[in-house]
Description:
Helix content: over 70%
Keywords: Endoplasmic reticulum, Membrane, Transmembrane, Transmembrane helix
Subcellular location: Endoplasmic reticulum membrane
Number of helices: 2
Membrane topology: Single-pass membrane protein
Number of domains: 1
Order of helices and strands: HH
Shape: rod-shaped
GO cellular component, one term: endoplasmic reticulum membrane
Family: Belongs to the TRIQK family.
Amino acid sequence: xxxxxxxxxxxxxxxxxxxxxxxxxxxxxxxxxxxxxxxxxxxxxxxxxxxxxxxxxxxxxxxxxxxxxxxxxxxxxxxx
Length: 80
């Protein structure tokens, strides 16, 4: 007779644990969704580093073109 009481108690404990697990899963789902949304927002937005990199690359390209044209056009024809 003592065994029935013990096994019945474990069933209620298991049910309680399942309820807690479901509640935690619901919380975890919400947290995961929020985290994914934040990550997607950060990935889609251009950061300061990206803008600085683009501007720097453009400036270097312009400087290279300017130097090339300066050296090419600066040459004078030989005097006779």
